[in-house]
UniProtKB/TrEMBL annotation:
Biased composition (Basic residues): 21-35
Source organism: Lentinus tigrinus ALCF2SS1-6
Biased segments, Acidic residues type: 1-11
SUPFAM superfamilies, per database record: Acyl-CoA N-acyltransferases (Nat) (SSF55729)
Record's protein name: N-acetyltransferase domain-containing protein
Species lineage: Eukaryota, Fungi, Dikarya, Basidiomycota, Agaricomycotina
Region (Disordered): 1-44
GO MF terms, alphabetically ordered: acyltransferase activity, transferring groups other than amino-acyl groups
InterPro entries given in the database record: Acyl_CoA_acyltransferase, GNAT_dom
Residue ranges occupied by any N-acetyltransferase domain in the UniProt entry: 250-394
Amino acid sequence: MSSDYEWDSAGDDGSYTNSRQSRRTKRRKITHRRGKADENQENVATSRTFSFDPLLDALHKQAADDWDDEWDMRDSFDATIDTLLPELEDAERAFISDTTLAVAQSSGLHLLSRERAAELTQLAEDEGCTILSSLFSAKARLHSRILRRVVLDRDPPYGRSGSLTPLVAPHPISSVKRQVVDALYAIQTTPYENSFLSRLQGYSPYRQNGIIAVDWETRTPWMELMDDIRDHYMLSHPEENPAEETVAPVTYCTLQPYHLDQVNDLLARVFWEGIDVSDALAYSPDRCTVVATYKQLVVGAAFFSSPQETYITYLAVRSGWDNSQIATSMLYHLITRNPHKDITLHVSINNPAMLLYNRFGFKAEEFIVGFYEDYLDPNSPQSKNAFRLRLRRW
């Protein structure tokens, strides 16, 4: 085929016209191809859109066993919105609260909700007052500081009038001696025994060491007797000033050197003469000794022989201080300060302390005839026979 600008052998105009027509035909062909491309793009776009109906039908068929009937409401709008309504209401209230707070901070106003406005209206009707007074009462409770500032910032009537009443001149203060002032300023520190705090909390020259526990609730027969004697004296002598009583607790502590005299005397009264526990200070007194004191009076004592043997050698309470759980507390502190060890002791068969040991779990292992014959007085009411008790910890 010849090109558009070639001439055929005849050289006439007809051949040139035909070649131009063929060129126009090619342009139309190109236009036709573009139309097909547009149709292909429309077909692709159409093929990309699809429906979810087949997928939903398949899910319904797969879960058909879980549905009660065709009227099951689990996929309905009501069933779905019921679970979302609480969250929607909470979000709405939070939004209203934040908006109200922002408006109040920017303009000093506090917006009322419809519910709050209805409450104020009902309150005004119930109390027989106006809505304005009910609103002012509510504002006074919510914004008392703001209202107080508004009231105080206003000029008082006496300030606007310009007339003021002078205050009465105070009486002149009596002159103080210069020596007294200098002496007070010269004081650098006050000893505790002379301080006001010691007058409130009490002072004793003896410093209590090794305290285990403090009991403020125990009331012993001796305390009650002293109270009765004091009350009787006050009734018999009303003209005299009543004596002041210093209230003190029962203190449990470890054995200290200044306890020895009273402890030895107490054990001699309860058991027999010649008892000396001064060697207990050398065998772990923090674990093997418990002394009960009231103020500076020793009212009870309990001892282990050693931390390794854990044998209770003595457990005694002063007369008049018994039946007040003092022996129970001392035995408890001895046991807890020596954990994971068996504890043994000997006790006379008619000693009331048997009940105390039974409450703690001690069991009799041996009956010994004449165990206390070499120690007790022949006229002692206590039996010379003894039980050997053990508290097993394993």
